[in-house]
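Sanity check

After download, print the first record. It should look like this:
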Amino acid sequence: MELINTCLKLAKFSDPLKVGNIILFHKHGKSKTEASSYRPISLLPTIGKVLEKLLTQRLNFHLEKNNRLSNLQYGFREGRSTEMATMKLFDTIHKGKASGDHVLVLSIDIKGAFDNIQHSAISSYLDNSKYPANIVNIFKNLLQNRKVILNTCEGPAIRDQKQGCPQGSCSGPALWNLVANEILQENWPINTNIQAFADDFVLVSHAPTRVQLESQIKESIAKFSTWTSKNQLQISAEKTNYLLISKLVRGPTIRWQFERNRRAHAIKYLGIYIDEKMNWNTHL
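Expected structure tokens:
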């Protein structure tokens, strides 16, 4: 407790508590010869995790009490769940269908969101959170001088961690929600809605014509691209697919970063397959 109280008093997070031992977990179905096929999990010192947990609880309490987070974020928040997120998505789709419009659902994939989030972006959003200065400063200090250790056949390899939130950390999800909050509060085109579960974003737009639908989606992509560029995040265009719930034979042409997005017959959202006919046959 003395160490924790001293850290809080000085607004400093002791450097030895920031060192993470990396354990690699292979992603099922991925090639074992590619680095991207492994998920790095950080094993952090227990005392550091206790302090980080206390700070994160304070941050979350402040954000929720003062309504600093968008209601469109369902991930890593008390009282919210994947069920609520999927029900919200289904409701949005059905409202578009009920209007007689063509409905487009765009599933957005961010490349390694937690691994690539910039510390400078987190610091900027912390400054705007109207959180007590001493807690903001200790969170900023937490991001500085981080190191990771990976055991190899030639011995431990030690590297500086200059970006990203360690997967396995207590504060990572809360800090991600701070950064993601800006895009969720954006003003979107008419009949266009966005929602997120952590870094899983989905856009739903509906319009009476293909041309109008394409225009709305292009404007939405431009807004999202501005946010990702600002925060030095990248979209995985090959994994960003769209679902068209409509009788249109030819759907709108959608491109992201000059790559054409694929029209899918079904997309997977939070473990549930949503198909273009909304009949759930994909699950049978």
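If your output differs, re-run the checksum step. Summary of this record's structure: Residues 1-275 form one domain.
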